[in-house]
Amino acid sequence: MTNRDLIQAWLDKAASDLRNAEIVLASGNNDLPTDTVCFHCQQAAEKYLKAFLTSRNTPFPPSHNLSDLIAIAAKVNPDFALILEKAESLSPYAVSIRYPDDYWMPTLSEAQEALATAREIKQFILQRLNPKR
Fold first, then answer.
1. DSSP code of 102?
2. What is the extent of the structural domain holding 85?
3. What is the tally of structural domains in the chain?
4. CATH of the domain at 66
């Protein structure tokens, strides 16, 4: 797989996670699985970050911690410090929300905010991947 193919694979996986969150929120169901909406938003942000890092041939550890990934990206492009706080709001959805010992159900408002944040991170990264976009 070429580097370009790997970047595209990260972007495709990120888009799939984001689309999953959008579909669930748009379903109008009264009993939405907001935990999985938030999880997919975190995953989308993580994969967009990994696409950027891959595009810059910057190695990264196998991590779900968005703060760690942004710290690495900020060494390549200091602008990434601008999205640190937003990204940190998604980090709890990576692992702890998936298991019963730390389980909680986010509110609909929290899920909507997670989606808005994931979309902002997507746009931020896509602009830096392809400045002409």
1. G
2. 3-129
3. 1
4. 1.20.120.330
Rounded CA separation 50/119 (Å): 15
Dig out the tokens for 80 from the structure: 């990434």
Q: DSSP class of residue 62?
A: S
What DSSP string describes 52-115? HHHHTT----S---HHHHHHHHHHH-GGGGGGHHHHHHHGGGTTGGGSGGG-----HHHHHHHH
Three-class SS state of 90 = helix
pTM of the model: 0.92
Structure confidence by residue, pLDDT tens digits, 12-21:
999 999 999 9
CA distance 68 to 46: 10
